[in-house]
């Protein structure tokens, strides 16, 4: 037997996306936004997409700066992840309040990366699409790095727990890699 899922929660059927922290900056303003709506889009060139509500402060910063950084948190950062996803950067310094440390990016990006995160994708904004109440920001990866003890061709789930969002206040993680 199957149950009906209301349309406002229908995305939760497929919403087990990996949680990322996106850092963005423009002039003297910086912000961090928690996102689970993200995806790879292309190998050549390396493109990815992040979906950000049109009303969010981060959308404004990304549109103005034309860049952003995808930061991959481990499960140990769950409290910071939740904080950054439930507070507005218009009103507070999320780096300070979440106890995350900004660090200079590795390439020409002015946006800081998040030191405590285990992986980073530095991106130039290639395109913006309006999709309902969100913007789909398409970024070209210009530099990528990950902690060498946790990433060997893929993340090593026996060594690090990534965060996946199930919708609302629900999260999960994984601890086993299966090779087929």
Question: Would you write up a description of this structure?
Answer:
The chain has helices at residues 57-65, 78-86, 94-98; strands at 20-26, 29-35, 38-42, 47-53, 67-72, 102-103, 113-114, 119-131, 134-146, 151-152, 154-155, 163-167, 170-173. 13% of the residues lie in helices and 42% in strands. The longest helix has 9 residues, at 57-65. The chain is mainly beta. The protein has one domain: Electron Transport, Fmn-binding Protein, Chain A (Pnp Oxidase, Chain A). The model has no long low-confidence stretch (mean pLDDT 94). The strands form 4 sheets. A 7-stranded antiparallel sheet has the order 2-1-5-8-9-4-3.
């Amino acid at each position: 037997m199957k149950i009906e899922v209301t349309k406002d929660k229908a995305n939760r059927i497929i919403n087990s996306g990996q949680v990322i922290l996106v850092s963005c900056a423009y002039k003297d303003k910086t912000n961090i936004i928690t996102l689970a709506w993200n995806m790879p889009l292309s190998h050549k060139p390396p493109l990815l997409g992040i979906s950000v509500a049109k009303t969010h402060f981060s959308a404004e910063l990304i549109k103005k700066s034309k860049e952003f950084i995808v930061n991959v948190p481990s499960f140990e950062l769950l409290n910071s992840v939740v904080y950054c996803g439930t507070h507005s950067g218009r009103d507070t310094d999320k780096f300070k309040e979440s106890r995350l440390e900004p660090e200079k990016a590795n390439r020409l990006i002015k946006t800081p990366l998040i030191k405590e995160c285990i992986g980073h994708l530095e991106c130039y904004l290639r395109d913006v699409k309006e999709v309902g109440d969100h913007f789909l920001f398409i970024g070209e990866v210009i530099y990528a790095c990950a902690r060498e003890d946790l990433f060997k061709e893929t993340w090593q789930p026996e060594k690090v727990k990534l965060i996946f969002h199930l919708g609302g206040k629900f999260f999960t993680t994984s601890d086993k890699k299966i090779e087929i």
